[in-house]
Amino acid sequence: MTPEQEQTIKAYNNSAKEFMQKIGILSNYNDTYDYLIQHLNENDNVLDLACGPAQISKYIKEKVNVNITGVDLSREMLQLAKNNVPDGIFIEDSIITFTGNFIYDAVIIGFGIPYLRSAQVIECIKNSISLVKTTGYLYLSFMHGNKEGFEKTSFGGDNNFYIFHHDKEDIKNILQENGMKIEKEYIIDYKETDGSVTKDIILIGKKE
């Protein structure tokens, strides 16, 4: 883990409640979650990597009663996750190398790779796909682009977060090279605090 990533984890610990209040309640991505939900059944096993306060898992469980395992490196986020999904299993671990206990029906990486360097992204995606059962699904979201650096966020106050924007085509290629057929692609505009617009990318793939 780099010093920048360590600082970013501290920043999330410091602003976990604010994240839940400002970002965790957004409905921008509900349509993308609904698409995934269409392919889930009762008692399916879902792995939520970079789960944060488990706002995605909470939304899913309100629609279909699945079994949630969440992974994050922010202890404060994990505490919120346990409150939001009381019957979930939440683990403090890296999303890059998490091994899990079994193969999952779906793996979610909701805005987890914006905190990973390119080589880490490849490792994370490969490892995540290995945890998806055949015909299972991978949900992945990130910001399109090629910039990196410390940024302030709408929820983080004076805390700095080191963030990577990744090229959409590069990420699609990694998914396809590792056996995922991209079933759905979304591009959603997100207005930043400075008035600029970031292109959020959501890719949902099915393991072949």
CATH third-tier fold name: Rossmann fold
The tally of structural domains comes to: 1
CATH class: Alpha Beta
Element pattern in H and E: HHHEHEHEEHEEEHEE
* Lateral arrangement of strands in the main beta sheet: 3-2-1-4-5-9-8
Helix-strand category: alpha/beta
Fourth-tier CATH superfamily name:
Vaccinia Virus protein VP39
Q: If helices are DSSP runs of H or I spanning 4 or more residues, what is the number of helices? A: 7
Report on the structure:
The protein is α/β, with parallel strands linked by helices. The protein has one domain (3-207): Rossmann fold (3-Layer(aba) Sandwich), CATH 3.40.50. It is 32% helix and 31% strand. The chain has seven helices and nine strands; from the N terminus they run αααβαβαββαβββαββ. The protein has helices at residues 3-14, 16-22, 30-37, 55-61, 75-84, 118-130, 168-177, and strands at residues 45-49, 67-72, 89-92, 104-110, 132-143, 148-151, 161-164, 180-191, 197-207. The strands form two sheets. The protein has a seven-stranded mixed sheet with strand order 3-2-1-4-5-9-8, sandwiched between helices. A two-stranded antiparallel sheet has the order 6-7. α5 (75-84) links the parallel β2 and β3 (89-92). The mean pLDDT is 92.
